[in-house]
Amino acid sequence: MLENKLKKLGFDKNERLIYLALFELGRCRAREIIKHTGLVRNSVYTTLEDLVHRGLVSKILVRGVAEFAPTDPASILNELDEKRRLAQSAIVELKQKHLEPGREVVVLAGPRAMYDTFYPMLEELKAGEEYYVLGATYGPIAERNAQFFDEYHTARIKKGVIANLLVSHEAYFPLIERFMRLGDPHFKVSHVKKFISSTPQPFQINLYHGKTRMILYGQETMVFCFDRPGVYQGFKSYFDALWERA
Fold first, then answer.
1. Which of 26, 123, 185, 217 is buried most, with the most CB atoms less than 10 Å from its CB?
2. CA 178 to CA 5: how far, in whole Å?
3. For residues 138 and 143, what is the distance between their CA atoms, to the nearest angstrom?
């Protein structure tokens, strides 16, 4: 039923009655809507103004009297798109609060752990800013996440965020091929060096903006999130020493 669909889209009772009435009546005055819906005058006028403000209803003056009509129903999608943008912005801020410096460590696990680790990092870093990766590996782990990393690095390269990766030997050439394929053939924003150890690493550590994200790959990916400057600085010094020797 159409009214139930509007309810699920967030329309309250008065909004549903008045919005649907406008489709039945066509362009009309408020008094006609009052008669059609049985709602009191103040409720009708208040709801109409809200619907006009949301872009769902148009209002024109004819000889000084307001007449109302529904706009293109597709405007509902515009409203939902705006809510989605607001939700995404709120999620980023809430994640920052969740990972506030006062906490020793936050653990992420489950299907969204990778997304909730890499995309907030990409959101926070601006074009030209850098992050550092220690221990990226290849093999079954990387192959299982190939689509995720293709999509992530495509977005990263497009934004211009610089990745500095110290990787295991078996990961080096697959990563070089990936970055060339995804749009960084001259490695302007993708810098890769071989890790001294040739042993595959079942983890990687991301370092950026004083934050440390330790990712443990396995049957279930787990991410340990540290925001203490001392943790970051310790790993960053280790990274810098290895980078110079690589």
1. 217
2. 44
3. 7
- 130-142 confidence digits (pLDDT tens): 999 998 765 566 6
Given pLDDT bands bounded at 50, 70 and 90, which one contains residue 207? Answer: very high
pLDDT score for 80: 85
Would you place residue 146 in the very low, low, confident or very high pLDDT band (cuts 50, 70, 90)?
Answer: confident
Retrieve residue 196's tokens.
């001294």
Whether residue 164 has pLDDT greater than 90: yes
